[in-house]
Amino acid sequence: MHNGRVIDWDDTRFFLAVARAGSTAAASRQLRVNQSTVVRRVDTLEKELGLRLFNKKRDGYRLTPEGEALLQEAAAVEASVQALTRRASALDSAFTGSLRVTTAEGMVGLVPPLLDEFRRRYPGIQVSLVIENRYNDLSDGIAEIALRAGPPGDGTLVGRKLSDQSWAVYGSRSYIQRYGAPTTPEELNEHHLVGFEGPIENITSARWLGAVAPRCEIACRSNSVHGLLLAAKSGFGLALLPCQIGETESELVRVIGPQPGLTSGLWILTHADLHKQPKIRAFFDFMAQEITKYRPLLLGQRQPSPSNTERPEPAASHPREGSQNGVDG
Questions:
Q1: Domain range for residue 243?
Q2: Distance between CA atoms of 190 and 179, rounded to whole angstroms?
C-alpha cells in the first residue's frame, strides 16, 4: 500500500482473474461481470498500489515485473478469504439459508427433480444449481457441493460414491434407416459420429471413442452434452450420451449399450471445512437415499419403451457411400 491507503480486497480477485485468463474479456466471462467492470477494478487496484500491474499487448494482458511479484500474495489473499467464507458457513447450524450445488451438463436432466424434492423436505434451504463442466468449482467458492463423475482427487475435499453411471451410443431413426446400426464398438469405425471438443474432449467417454473408433468419420463436433444430443437427434451421426439422457429420448435408438470403458462413479463432494454442517449432511444423506431409484436409468438398465426397441429396417447404403457430407437430416 502507498500513502497509507487501504486497498479493497475484492480488487485482488479481478487482478488474479486477468492474470490467469490473459485478457479482461476472458476474465469477465469467468467472473460473470461486464468487461468494463474488470478493467475498472484493475485500474483501481493499480492506482491504490501506485504500481502498474499489466502491460496491454495485442494478444491480451501480460503481467509486469511488479505484477509478477505480487501474484503469489494475491493468491494467498484469495485462499484466505475463501477459507474464512467456508468457516463462517460451517458455523451455521440451522437448516436454513442457501446451498449451491454444481454438476456437469450431463446430469441436468436428473438433478433438478432431486433438488425439487429436497426443497420440499427442507423448505428453509434455498438450493441453487450451477452447471459447470470444469472441476475447480468448490475451491473457488462457486458452490458448496459438487456431483461429479469421479472421487475427490483433491485432499481438501470429502465425499461418497452415490452410484455408477454409464454412457452408450445412440442414433436417430433416420440415421439408422439410412445407414444401419453398428453391433460392436469396432463397427463404429464405419459410421459417422458426433465428436467431442472443448471442455469435454478429455472426458472418459471421449477417450473411449478415440480408442475404439480411431477411423470413424466425425460428422460434427460439440463442446457440450446438449450439443451431442441435438446433433444425434438431427441425424448428423451416432453419439455417445449419458444413459440418463439417451434412454429418455424417444427419437433416439440405443445401438451399443454401456461398455466397461464407459462406466464411472457418480460422487457427491464437499469441502472438508463444510462436511459437518447440518444442511450439507442433510443433502448428502438425501442424495444417498434418493439416488437408488435412478440407478437403473444411470446404468442404462431401464427397459426401453416398445417404440425404442422397434428399429427401422436398415437401408443398403453405407455411411461412407452416402451423400458428400454423409448427413441425413
A1: 165-262+302-321
A2: 10
Report the domain count for the chain.
3
What does the pLDDT read at residue 142?
Answer: 78
Pick the residue with more confidence: 107 or 82? 107
N-to-C CA span, the chain: 63
Q: Does 326 map to a domain?
A: no
Here the cell at position 206 is 471421449
**308 with 201, same domain?**
yes
Question: From the CA atom positions of the chain, what is the Rg in Å?
Answer: 24
> Are 110 and 145 within one domain?
yes
Dihedrals phi, psi of 110, to nearest 5 degrees:
-95, -40
Cell of 16: 488474479
Residue with the bigger pLDDT between 132 and 278: it is 278
Model pLDDT for residues 159-186, shown as the tens digit of each residue: 999 999 999 999 999 999 999 999 999 9
Q: At 145, phi and psi to the nearest 5?
A: -130, 140
Contacts of 260 (CB under 8 A, 6+ apart): none
Angle of helix 65-90 relative to helix 9-21, nearest 10 degrees, comes to 120
Quick one: how many helices (H) and strands (E) in the chain?
12, 11
